[in-house]
Write a structure and sequence with these properties.
Glutaredoxin; globular; alpha/beta; 195 residues; 42% helix; two-stranded antiparallel ribbon
């Protein structure tokens, strides 16, 4: 085989790889992250224990964290995965407070793979919209919940079933068009007799 043809044969796999990688990069950049599928919607929340954020206090008392049992007490709730190092988490933070007030729901925060001191500074700077804050330091519980990254937000009905998952930061539009309707639908289904 000639040297020119040999070089071309070695170059073909590299070109194919570059072409496939380019398609993947284009798909990731142009896609809407909120459209990522979730196998958890319609299922019971995974058995979970979210230990408290070390040193976080509310009204002078140490926060206790929360468990999956706290999400099945008859009231629609929201679970929000966040981290101090997450830029989009800063963007959505004021909307979490508005969500809590507008929808009258308990918002549970899960601090994801973060240092306690950094997480406390984040809450000190931007406010604490959470009913309770738990931690997932190793990210193991996030795997059970099907979390792709932060921020991610789940609407949980009063029976502890995930009824909606929002991937990425909450925006004004997603708050009005997706989260609030999902919360209202969960409330309405809770009022219906279960058979």
């Amino acid at each position: 085989m000639s040297e020119g043809r040999s070089s071309l044969v070695r170059l073909v796999p590299v070109l194919i790889f570059a072409l496939v990688a380019g398609f993947f990069a284009l798909a990731l950049r142009s896609g809407d992250p909120s459209l990522l599928p979730s196998t958890m919607v319609g299922k019971q929340v995974p058995e979970s224990k979210f230990p408290p954020l070390e040193g976080l206090e509310t009204n002078g008392k140490p926060d206790q964290g929360f468990t999956s049992a706290d999400l099945a007490k008859g009231k629609v709730s929201v679970v929000n995965y966040w981290a101090s190092w997450c830029g989009p988490c800063v963007e959505e933070h004021p909307l979490l407070e508005r969500l809590k007030e507008t929808a009258d729901v308990d918002v549970f925060g899960v601090n994801y793979k973060d240092r306690a001191s950094a997480a406390r500074r984040f809450i000190g700077r931007y406010g604490n919209p959470y009913t309770a804050v738990g931690t997932d330091l190793q990210g193991r519980t996030a795997i059970d919940w099907g979390v792709y990254g932060t921020p991610e937000t789940f609407v949980v009905n009063g029976r502890g079933e995930i009824v909606y998952k929002h991937v990425g930061p909450i925006s004004e539009q997603s708050l009005k068009m997706k989260l609030l309707p999902a919360i209202e639908k969960a409330r309405a289904s809770a009022a219906l007799p279960q058979g």
